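User: For my dataset I need records formatted as: sequence, then C-alpha cells, nothing else. Please produce one.
Assistant:
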Amino acid sequence: MFRHHRTGGRPAGALLTLLALLLATACGSGTTDSAGSGGGRSLTVRIALGVDASYAPLYLAVERGMFEKAGLDVQLMKVEGGPAAAQAVTAGVAQMSANADSTALPQMVSNPALRSLGVFQSSGRLLKVVLRKGITSPRQIRTMGSIQGIGLFATHQYLRHHGIDPDSVKIQQSSPQEMPTIFQRGDIDGYILFDPWVTKGVEAGGHIAGSTGDFGVTYRQWLLADQKWLKEHQDVAGKVFKVVAEADRLVTKDPHAAALASHEQVQLPVAGTEKAIGEISFRSRALTAADVASSRRIVDFLLAQKLIKSAPDYDTVLLRGWYDRHAR
C-alpha cells in the first residue's frame, strides 16, 4: 500500500510482477474482455490493489455483489502492494488501481498517463511510531527503520517535528516484514508502520509513541486509471467509484462485516482488520486544493531525496472535480 521503489531501482521484481499479471490475464481471456464489450460479453474492469485493511471497501463490495448489482463486471487483481498496482494499470493488465498518494505520485512522473480520480479513504492514525524500551524522548533516537515512500517521508517529518535533523539519525530502509526483527535485534531504535507490524513491535518490547497525524502526516488513498482507457470509459469508472463510495459507508457503519469480508477475500485476520478499520476514515470525495498541496509536499521531499527526477504535472494527473461530475 505505502511502499515506493526508487526510479530505476529493482526493475526485475517489477517486471516479474507484471509478467505474472499478464499471464493471469491471458489465462482468463476466454471468459472476460478487458478492452471492451464484444461477443455479448460485458466490459470487465480489473482493479489492481494490495492486501491490507485499507482496501476493505473493495473486498466488501465484491463479497456482497455490489458491483454486479450496479451492472458492472469487476475483478480485483491482488498484487504485492506499493507501485505494482499502478504499474499494472500502465501495463494495461488492469484498468484501475488503488494507491496511496505517496506511491502514486512517483509513478505519475514515469507514467504521465496515470490519473487520480479521487480519494476513497485517508488516515492520520493508522501509521504509528514504535520506539524501543528505554527510549523516552525522540532526542534519544540514533537509528530509525523505515519503509520507502510514506514511511520515509513520515520518519523525516517526525524527526523534524521534534527539532531533530534527519541527517543526524541513521535511517535504515527495510520491508515491513523485516522491521520487527531488526527492531528486536537492537539494530534500530524505532520505526513508523501500520499493523500488524506495530503490534509485533510492541510484542518485541517496544511501545507506541504516537501516530503520524500527531506531526501532520496524513496519507490519502486514491483510485487511479490510465487516461487512454478513462477517455472512453468515463461512465464505467464513475459507476465503479459510486460502488466504492457506497461500500465506504457500509464499512464505516459495520466494521466487523468489513473485516469478515476482508478475511474471505484475502485471509486477513478479523480482529486486527477491524481494529485497523477503526483508524481509517472511509469516505469517497473529490480531490481538493488541500490534496494538491499535500502532493506537492510529498513530491518536494522525494525530489530532495533524489528518489524522482522531476515533478508530475499536478493540473493534468490530479483530476480535481472528476468525482463530482462522474461519481456523485
